[in-house]
Structures are given as structure tokens and as C-alpha cells.
Design brief:
Layout lengths: L1 E6 L9 H8 L5 H9 L3 E3 L2 E2 L11 E6 L16 E4 L3 E6 L16 H9 L23 E7 L2 H12 L4 E9 L6 E5 L2 E3 L7 E3 L7 E2 L2 E10 L2 E8 L6 H8 L16 H5 L9 E9 L6 E5 L4 H19 L1
Parallel strand pairs: 7-15
Antiparallel strand pairs: 1-4, 2-3, 2-4, 5-6, 6-7, 8-14, 8-15, 9-13, 10-11, 10-12, 13-14, 15-16
């Protein structure tokens, strides 16, 4: 990560921060400087500043450039929890905390790097050099089942199944608050949050770029202040379960990006909470070569089981008082 130090001269006084940065750094355009400022990568006198900040003489500006995106993913010897594998597909139980494919800030240590080492050159190339074999994704902090394609025919088949909503993905989640009904469906379009580019949001404005999103949910257990849910995706949008649950007033426990907040329970059990409490537990698909209907399931990870145990014990204690 490269950092450039600039000092505003008397003649720079009154200039906008993005204009100054672009003029002082030959590698920056004004739009790129504005984007870096919005991302918090430009500071003035040690503090983040907005792109339209007006400079004073002597202001010290630090511009931090993100690491360049890798041009190709490389094999890395990383252990994988392989649930199923044949010549066409491989089903992985991805741990929470693992990024799916290389990108800026995560050039290695990803699922793709591990798959390249495990599968060798047999992975599908349809996803490109950074995403070979990848037909769908899980968020970094969401663990659970994913399928990858080991050849191009399998990739095209799985992609078509996903597009036609013929792949069933079932998640287990712990949401904040209590649901009045035992089951329901959230049908709400999702698009990029115009106020925060790191978030997605429910957006009904037809003028905005959105995609339809449908989540079916049912209650598995209720506890004081929390609900254990099973969520089945009819569509597969970025952050879909997280956005939909937040949109109906029940953000997932531990999901700070979407309002999961920090509750007393979370503070008491922080060792078990590694981001949003969401796990991809079941995956159903049609095998791309044989046409066989296949169902894969994975056991909940230890931290998730521990949280449920804590919630159940707390519920039992409340009922005996």
C-alpha cells in the first residue's frame, strides 16, 4: 500500500481537496481523487476529509493508494472442507472469514486460491482468471456450502440453473427481535445503497438500478429478543438475507453493516460472534452431467451452536423466574 505526502503551499489555499490532490499527484485524476476521499483514503492533518474540503496553506495531505488488484489468482496450499467432488463439480463448506476470490485488499488466502491448489488446472475458466470455477458467492463472514465448476460445461449448466432459480440455497440465521408470524416471504428489490457504496438496500424507485429479490423465511425457535430462522432464497442477490432482514426491522445478530448493532448479549458472547450470524446450511442442484437431483447439507459451525445454546439457556432461565 503506497502513501503520498503533500503539503499545501500558500498558492493552494482555497482549492478543493480533490482538485489539489489530482494536480499534485500526476497519477491521479480528479474523479479518482474524489473516490479516494470518499473511501477515507485521503487525510488532511491526520483526519479524513471530504472531497470538497477547502485547503489552507500548510495543510498536510496524505493520499493512501489501495493495493493494485492481482492480475491472476495463484494456487495456495489452504485446507478445504470438501463435502463432495467429482470430475464436474466440487462442493465446499466455506469457513466464515474466508473471502471467495481475490480482489483489492484480498490478493490471496481466498477460496479460489485454495481451489486452484486442490483442483489444479481443471477448474472452469468461464469466471475469468480471478474467479475460476466460481458460479455463486458467499460473503466473507458467511460460512457454509458453495459449489464450484470444474469445467466450462458444468459452469454454464450451474449458471443457467441459478438464473432460472433451480438451485435451492437454504440458510440458517439468528435475527434480532421477535417475528409475529411463523413464516413469510420478503419480496423487495435490492440495489446499491446510494448513501453507502459498501451496502446494498431495498429500493423501490424504478429509476434506480435494482434487481428483484425474494426470500422465504420460517421461524425455527424464538428466544427473548432474538429469533432463529431458516431462510430459502428464490433469488441470489448480494447480501440478500442481510438486507431483507434489516429491511423488515430484524437485522442479523452481529451484522454491524446492516444495523445488527451491539446488544448486551453480543457483548457477553463476543467470542462466538464473527460478523453476521448467517450460515449456508443446505444446497440443492441438478448435476450438470448426469441430471441427478443432489442435496448437500452441512452442520452448523461451533460458534453458531454455542450461540444457540446460550440463547436456549437464557430462555430457560427466564421461564423459571
Amino acid at each position: 500500500m503506497k502513501t503520498l505526502k503533500l503539503t499545501a503551499a500558500p498558492g493552494d489555499e482555497g482549492l478543493r481537496l480533490d482538485v489539489f490532490a489530482a494536480s499534485a499527484a500526476s497519477t491521479l485524476t480528479r474523479s479518482a481523487a474524489a473516490r479516494l476521499a470518499e473511501e477515507g483514503r485521503i487525510t488532511v492533518n491526520g483526519r479524513s476529509a471530504k472531497k470538497n474540503y477547502r485547503l489552507g496553506a500548510g495543510d498536510v495531505v496524505l493520499v493512501t493508494f489501495p493495493d493494485p488488484e492481482p492480475s491472476i489468482a495463484l494456487p495456495e496450499d489452504i485446507a478445504l472442507d470438501v463435502v463432495y467432488e467429482d470430475d464436474d463439480i466440487i462442493v465446499i463448506n466455506k469457513p466464515a472469514g474466508m473471502v471467495v476470490h481475490p480482489a483489492a485488499g484480498n490478493p490471496g488466502g481466498t477460496l479460489v486460491n485454495a481451489l486452484l491448489a486442490h483442483c489444479g488446472p481443471s477448474l472452469s475458466g468461464v469466471g475469468g482468471v480471478l474467479r475460476p470455477g466460481i458460479v455463486h458467492r458467499l460473503d466473507k463472514d458467511t460460512g457454509g456450502l458453495m459449489v464450484a465448476a470444474k469445467n466450462d460445461d458444468a459452469h454454464r449448466s450451474l449458471s443457467a440453473q441459478l438464473k432460472q432459480h433451480k438451485v435451492s440455497r437454504i440458510y440458517h440465521a439468528i435475527a434480532t427481535g421477535l417475528f409475529n408470524s411463523d413464516r413469510g416471504t420478503i419480496d423487495a428489490p435490492i440495489g446499491r445503497d446510494p448513501k453507502n457504496r459498501k451496502r446494498m438496500a431495498i429500493i423501490y424507485d424504478p429509476a434506480k438500478k435494482t434487481r428483484n429479490a425474494i426470500t422465504h423465511w420460517r421461524v425455527l425457535e424464538r428466544y427473548p429478543g432474538f429469533t432463529y430462522l431458516c431462510c430459502e432464497l428464490e433469488t441470489g442477490r448480494t447480501h440478500q438475507v442481510r438486507v431483507h432482514m434489516s429491511g423488515v426491522g430484524h437485522p442479523l445478530l452481529g451484522d454491524l453493516l446492516y444495523g445488527g448493532g451491539r446488544t448486551g448479549f453480543e457483548r457477553e458472547n463476543s467470542q462466538y460472534i464473527r460478523g453476521q450470524c448467517l450460515f449456508a446450511k443446505e444446497l440443492q442442484l441438478t448435476h450438470p452431467r448426469t441430471g441427478e437431483q443432489m442435496t448437500f447439507t452441512a452442520g452448523l459451525p461451533g460458534n453458531f451452536v454455542a450461540l444457540l445454546d446460550k440463547l436456549r439457556k437464557r430462555t430457560a432461565a427466564d421461564t423459571t423466574q
